[in-house]
Design brief:
The protein is mainly beta and 312 residues long. 2% of the residues lie in helices and 45% in strands. The chain contains one helix and 24 strands. It has one helix at 147-153; strands at 2-7, 17-22, 33-36, 42-49, 55-61, 69-75, 86-87, 104-105, 111-118, 122-129, 137-138, 160-161, 168-169, 179-186, 192-198, 202-208, 219-224, 231-234, 240-244, 257-262, 270-276, 282-290, 293-300, 304-311. The chain has a four-stranded antiparallel beta sheet with strand order 4-5-6-7, with no helix packed on it. The longest helix has 7 residues, at 147-153. It starts with a strand and ends with a strand. 38% of the residues are buried. InterPro entries: Sialidase, Sialidase_sf. Pfam families: BNR_2 (PF13088). This is Exo-alpha-sialidase. Residues 2-296 form the Sialidase domain.
Amino acid sequence: MLTAWFGGSREGADDVGIFLSRKSEGADFQTAEKMAGGKEPHWNPVLFSTNDQKVFLFYKKGRKIAHWRTYIRISQDGGRTFGKERELVTGDIGGRGPVRNKPIQLQNGRILCPASVEGKEWKGFVDISENNGESFVRSNWIEIAGMRNLLSQTKNMESGKNKNSDIPVSDQSFYGRGVIQPTLWADDNSEIHMLLRSTEGRIYRSDSKDGGYNWSEAVPTEIPNNNSGIDMTKLADGRLVLVHNPVGENWGMRSPLSLSVSEDNGKTFSRLYDLESGPGEYSYPAIVSEKDEVYITYTYNRKNIVFCHMKI
């Protein structure tokens, strides 16, 4: 098992770097290795293993989210060692490649990276590679219908700290901004789907019928979302397992942190289990699976990381 995170004195500080820890079966996680860091903040590492067992480590650099650049290090030996970092898309400003959640690789070899940007409007896209990660092209933008018009009419947005959180947030984090940080699943090489974090109190959904190049407008689901990260995995039997904070208030409390399961390809989800339900912040989960087993990490009160392994 490999797990990666960003850490330092505080989120957004210049000393924040990227760390990685390895775990062998039956052993504890090893002391973390610093994979990147220097004179500016680092963010949002994403691990991904290709069909040929390469391991990609993506991450962002930059003081402002809207000005992120994406970097990558690649392992040829299953994550034991990694090559030197390089920019994913030379000269890009805003952030290419996966923004928080893992890519998926289709049966035809195509890699789809769930991506988004956070400017005045929050919107998603998918970065697509047909050559095993050597180069990428982007899909269309994935937006909430009418969001751009709403933003143009909005002159005075709240800012500061939400009444339920000590986390400093900008005006772009309140209602009427859009969707970010998709999580993907595939039916086959053509039918691809995503769920997205939003500022609107609900998880949103978009679908592609051409293998990830073109996506529908984002529409709300019935699943509550508190404008915090979500992630999902598809089990061998076709069930979808979503890990999320089921709280329907923008920037609401990040407890409970729950597992929900869909048996109808994402049309409906039922709450299965609360990983955490007490006071505190339990957030930004990541989930992968093998057969009917899931492996989950999440942030514990913004100080530690929890790892869990269970059968579903």
